[in-house]
Amino acid sequence: MAVTNDMLDELIGNAKTQEDLFGEGGVIKDLSKKLIERVLDAEMTHHLGYEKHATEGRNTGNSRNSKGKKTVKTGSGEITIEVPRDRSGEFEPLLIEKRQTRLKDLDNQILLIDLSAGNK
Fold first, then answer.
1. What's this model's pTM, rounded to 2 decimal places?
2. Which of 25, 33, 39, 62 has the least CB density, counted as fewest CB within 10 Å?
3. Where are the beta strands (DSSP E) in 32-97?
4. R_g (Cα) of the chain, nearest Å
5. 3-state class (DSSP) for residue 43
6. In the chain, where are the structural domains located?
7. Contact indicator for 57, 48 with CB cutoff of 8 Å
């Protein structure tokens, strides 16, 4: 799926300053947090073999068991994410492994955003 200019316009919304985009409550941090948490939730679904709230997960011996908070370093600074847990403690996330505090290959990632009005 390609990210379109319309999608970017919707994400950026009313951001006018660099702080609005990259600051503490900025778009980039919020997007990073939500994307990371969505991937971790998908990893948990794959690990357990069923979707959240699915009936086939009942009485399987292992299920989702709330979430724990974790702070990770990203290109836009530190963000606090919620990492799903399973009852048996066997879930090993791949995106951000246990005890990992920095995204893999973070130093090699570059984010380019063209906010010029001519690129809509």
1. 0.76
2. 25
3. 64-74, 77-86
4. 17
5. helix
6. 5-10+18-52+62-119
7. yes
